[in-house]
Amino acid sequence: MLQACLNGSRTAEEHPALPLSPERLAEDAADVAALGVTSVHIRPRDVIGALTLVGPEVATTIATVRAAVPGIEISVSTDVPGNRAPLIASWAALAAGRPDVACVRVAEPGWRDLAEALHRVNVKVELVVEAPAKLQDLPAGVSRLTVTATRETAESLLSVVEPLGLPVLLYGRDSDAWPVLDYAAVLEHHVRMGLEDTLHLPDGRRAKNNAELIALARRRQRTRAPS
Questions:
Q1: pLDDT tens-digit series, residues 125-155
Q2: Closest to 42 (Cα-Cα) out of 68, 18, 8
Q3: Helix runs in 69-209, H state only
Q4: CA-wise closest residue to 75 among 7, 27, 154, 165
Q5: Which pTM was predicted?
Q6: Can you point out the beta strands (E) in the chain?
Q7: What is the number of structural domains in the chain?
Q8: Partners of 42 in beta bridges
Q9: How far apart are CA 20 and CA 133, in angstroms?
Q10: What is the CATH number of the domain that holds 92?
């Protein structure tokens, strides 16, 4: 799987093509879906542009993206300040505005409670592992393990998550984004790419948009995978 991470917590000042509104996210999702992407990871914003988990605001973003790309997996992050469990509980009534998957960072205090809150509202859990951690007895609903790594730390982190037997998505950020993508492709793990992770192409040039990053990532994934 190649997942497109469309915006992250970046601001409009960082890149002119960064999609922040529901409409712009839907446009980018349609563009990357045409390139073969089957999963998008997005960070919904409120009316003033702040990251949000508030039910109606999440629902507006998810429903707009889903209308543009029916059937694609939509993932969101729970990495937002504040008391998140009650906000997630409100997602139970969102129907088409509810995400399919939500990421939970294992490094955060109370991550198990957050994962359980997501499971109660029928949202699959994607655990994000950034450092070695004890992951025995995973909470219900965990469907994927996402490893945030550098090329130097990837092997040791994979040694922690691979024995758990769940699908693994491996990615890096900024200068590590392309080297880690190449390494993950060789290992045939899931990968991701987009303006959340890097604003640049491997040669250092600024990427035009998410579609340019995804098109190149798809080519590299195919050429580096074992034949």
A1: 999 999 998 888 899 999 999 999 999 999 9
A2: 8
A3: 84-89, 111-120, 154-161, 177-187
A4: 7
A5: 0.96
A6: 2-5, 39-42, 73-77, 101-105, 124-129, 142-148, 168-171, 191-193
A7: 1
A8: 76
A9: 33
A10: 3.20.20.70
